[in-house]
């Protein structure tokens, strides 16, 4: 009897963590709906998992997200330590030259996960804290990842975003997504203007590894006015930092995967 109950608890825990991993931040009722369990018992289990670090509280009251501890178990954090080490010097440079909050994100399925964040002098936004994630069509760092995926992956992602099985209800149209990725690739950096937090803007750029593959992205974020009042200067700082980090990862110009 005890063994059966223990196995049921393991299965419920696995279902909850899988739901959070696949869908990002969720309320307890939404988690309960996805795993097919009562809200009351799901909330109690979420609370227990939060206490041990397997689940974290989300960006708003009542939301839950998968914990950084579990991300570590899955290998994401450990696999990206070299990226963080390569990126941190240039991220600190961005703080010194722009004063804006700086993010480092990696792709995980159809989301961008924040694996490093350095707070700027002006804005301490609750969005995209360490371990948080966003869909790849929202925010500067996620958009940079989206736009610089190889063509086949980019096209497939567009179809997943707008298709009938899409888990998101606020996705831009297919035409808008294609326009966003094309314009981002042409200018070399991404723009976010209030699509994550009203009044907050951001600029992002891709990072490439020694094989010319998309590895991660960085971005700066602050109030809209200081970011977009001097977009060329801010974009130059971000893209220059991205180039330095890519070189630290062994990237050579001209080796970007198609």
Describe the overall structure.
The termini are far apart. 50% of the residues lie in helices and 20% in strands. The strands form 2 sheets. Strands 6-5-4-9-8-7 form a 6-stranded antiparallel beta sheet, with helices on both faces. Strands 1-3-2 form a 3-stranded antiparallel beta sheet. The model has no long low-confidence stretch (mean pLDDT 86). The protein is of the alpha+beta class. It has 11 helices and 9 strands.
Features:
single chain, 258 residues, alpha+beta, six-stranded antiparallel sheet, three-stranded antiparallel sheet, 11 helices, globular
Instruction: Give the overall shape, derived from the CA principal axes.
Output: globular
Encode the helix/strand succession as letters: HEHHEEHHHEEEHHHEEEHH
Terminal Cα span: 56 Å
Structural class: alpha+beta
Mean pLDDT: 86
Rg computed from alpha carbons, rounded to a whole number of angstroms:
19 Å
Low-confidence stretches: none
The share of residues in helices is 40-55%
Q: Total number of β-strand segments? A: 9
Summarize the biggest pleated sheet: 6 strands, antiparallel
Helices, by number, come to: 11
Query: Strands of the largest sheet, in order across it?
Result: 6-5-4-9-8-7
The fraction of residues in strands falls at 15-25%
Structure at a glance:
The chain is α+β, with helices and mostly antiparallel strands. Helices cover 50% and strands 20% of the residues.
Topology (SSEs and partners):
Elements: H1 2-23, E1 26-27, H2 28-35, H3 39-51, E2 55-57, E3 63-66, H4 68-74, H5 76-79, H6 81-98, E4 101-108, E5 111-118, E6 133-135, H7 140-147, H8 151-162, H9 174-187, E7 190-193, E8 200-208, E9 214-223, H10 224-228, H11 231-248
Antiparallel strand pairs: 1-3, 2-3, 4-5, 4-9, 5-6, 7-8, 8-9
